[in-house]
Amino acid sequence: MEKEKADKKDRILDVAERVFSEMGYDGASTRLISGEANVNMAMLNYYFGSKEGLFVAVFERKIYSFKTLLQPIIGDENLSPWEKLERCIDIYIDRILINSCFHKLVNREISLNRHGEVNDKITDILMVNALEFKKVMQEGVDNGSFFEAADIELCVATIFGTKNYIINAPHIASRLLGKDVFDQHFLETEMNQRMKTYMKRLLKSYLVITNDRTN
Amino acid sequence: MEKEKADKKDRILDVAERVFSEMGYDGASTRLISGEANVNMAMLNYYFGSKEGLFVAVFERKIYSFKTLLQPIIGDENLSPWEKLERCIDIYIDRILINSCFHKLVNREISLNRHGEVNDKITDILMVNALEFKKVMQEGVDNGSFFEAADIELCVATIFGTKNYIINAPHIASRLLGKDVFDQHFLETEMNQRMKTYMKRLLKSYLVITNDRTN
DNA sequence: TTTGCTTAATCAATCGTTTGATTAAATTTG
DNA sequence: CAAATTTAATCAAACGATTGATTAAGCAAA
């Protein structure tokens, strides 16, 4: 009973997450979601109060800052700023590519400024994550191991933006890369490694001081 | 008469572009658009046939490849691959920041794969532009002036993705940068210069070979 | 008069939500 | 234990509101 209820709620949330991410909030009707989840329409309101309530629930199940994951790395005094950044990138890319459909949803709905409740919460969490990356890079700049004139705020935009570009428009990314970005297995293995390698090399060559640095 | 009609159509298109980009296609009702444009609702269908027709018209007015802008640069034999890339970045950023609200619309609706007609057209155009950038970078790799193992496809993702991150979620970007990204004047002046400087330095340090290159 | 533009009124369809009835399990009562 | 009562889950049906679209009449200009 308890179990079945939890199962059904989870099934609804799974379907809702997928349908929302495919059709957008407005494009996804409660009838379609309930239909695909094989539950009566009224169950959505019974469990979640409203369509917006369901939307919020989809987020609350998944969204949480991984500040707690990043903190021990950032606080580790044995690691150089660059080593910290490397590990943060690894953790971030791992998490993103596993939940790519969810992050697609996040990015689309956050560009619409509605759903005040959800939006504010997500904005806060995204900001926390962004600021963690910024903090690590600032540390590198401050201790002189990173390029002093580095635009670390735009570096944050690059880290998140490069990922978004692949995730948000998979059919474009597929054509660009010549790979099937819709394939979850490809994302979690080959793409995962490729993005990590690329992000680190890109940022290292920009941030980490070697010798000459002409404009 | 001719003039007034054109004016009215343009006014509708201006409003539609803004409302679509603020609310999304599904979130924007024809009543709201016609209301804000101060025209009768039926005028939308009279001029554009349908809501989707209006949507298409919004795109057709603005979307076109700037391959023609890039071609003379790419074809110029007096320019090195890096010099070509620099100029392409300049042109690209100029164009994007002027039409930021439109590109926000493009990016959201392309992540939803509906509107087959528009989507296919936009995808093609975006691909053309992406492939132009890729071509320039490939040239640099081929002639040995660029890092041979450079992941130029992900470089494309970085160029477009970094821009999207700023444009798509301006309220997040505003908090990250400590600036008002909604301010069109700021975008077209300060942000414009800052993004150009950053993109060039970032890509140059990654692509252009200087001396050592350890992982 | 004919043509092109404009309007208010109206259309069927779909939206998210609510309802009241039904079922089954859990709990209380005798 | 058995009977009575409460609670939770589920459903088909219907609600009012809003959607995009159409109509037919009115209007102005050529």
Please, could you describe this protein's structure?
- 2 copies of one chain form a homodimer.
- Chain A has 215 residues and is mainly α.
- Chain A has 2 domains: 60 residues, Homeodomain-like (Arc Repressor Mutant, subunit A), CATH 1.10.10; 145 residues, Tetracycline Repressor, domain 2 (Orthogonal Bundle), CATH 1.10.357.
- Chain A is built from 11 helices and no strands.
- In chain A, α1 packs across α7, α3 packs across α4 and α6 packs antiparallel against α11.
- The longest helix of chain A has 27 residues.
- Chain A is elongated.
- The N terminus of chain A is likely disordered.
- Chains A and B meet through α7, α8, α9, α10 and α11 of A and α1, α7, α8, α9 and α10 of B.
- Chain A binds a DNA duplex (30 and 30 nucleotides) through α3.
List descriptors.
Arc Repressor Mutant, subunit A; 215 residues; 2 domains; homodimer; DNA-binding; mainly alpha; Tetracycline Repressor, domain 2
Please outline what is shown here:
2 copies of one chain form a homodimer. Chain A contains 11 helices and no strands. By secondary structure, chain A is mainly alpha-helical.
